[in-house]
Amino acid sequence: MNRERLVLIGLVFSIFVIVLASVVVSTRLRQAHNLVVDAALASREIHRISDLMRQSSNDLTRMVRLYALTGDIRYREYFQEILDIRNGLSPRPEEYEEDDNYWVNLLATGERLGELGPAVSFETVLQESQLPESELALVRESEKLSNDLAIIEEAVMEVIDGQVASSGGDFVHTEETIEALGRLYDAAYMTAKIGIFDPLSELEEASERRIAAVIAEREAEHRGLAELQLGLVIIAALLLVGKKVALLMHWRGS
């Protein structure tokens, strides 16, 4: 009788341990799943930051070319605003990130999308992203190259400024302004432009490799935990059967 009671108690205790272990495994499974989700969100964040940098560079190019072509001062003002938004010196429009055609829409309609939000520098956006420092360095390199190109663009606009000032509001191209306009399309400019995007491509490739490794590791852990959980369920079922057999023997012995 005492032996049967001990067997019964042991079975109950074993089942309790199995259930507890199963709960722990289930928790780890959820954690592994959440880490995979976080990795996917990190991938989206990387592409968001990369797109922001590319878009701001392209918007600067669009504005300086329009100004050099037409002498319309609003394009020069938009150029400066784009830089100021990126540097956190001007308010960032609320729709700035959601709509990469913000400036195209403004040029076409004269209307801004959404309201102006607080001034947030691109550096602040980078810091809030919590990307690895090696990847942040690539984005900062791209921004530096864009700022370097802006020096060339500013020099071109100064030539146009001079013609705008001397024309009395009737802008006319001269040999000097045509030469300045050509600097925005020559091989040196295009090479510098491509150079801005190279670190962003490297960023995306590096981050995708990192995230793919994380996902592969978590998926392997997920499979291992799922197999362990299945094993625990099978053991629990066998112990439950054993418990019923022990109870039956206990009752018969009584």
Question: How is this structure best described in words?
Answer:
The chain is an all-alpha fold and 254 residues long. Helix content is 82%, strand content 0%. The protein has seven helices and no strands. It has helices spanning 2-70, 73-86, 102-109, 122-129, 133-167, 175-182, 187-253. It is rod-shaped. The termini are close together.
Short summary:
This protein has 254 residues and is mostly helical.
H-E string: HHHHHHH
Quickly count the helices: 7
Count of individual beta strands: 0
Unreliable spans are none
Report mean pLDDT, rounded to a whole number.
81
Strand content: under 5%
Distance between the termini: 8 Å
How would you describe the shape?
Answer: rod-shaped
Give the C-alpha Rg.
Answer: 32 Å
Percent helix? over 70%
Largest sheet: none
- From the helix content, strand content and strand pairing, which structural class follows? mainly alpha
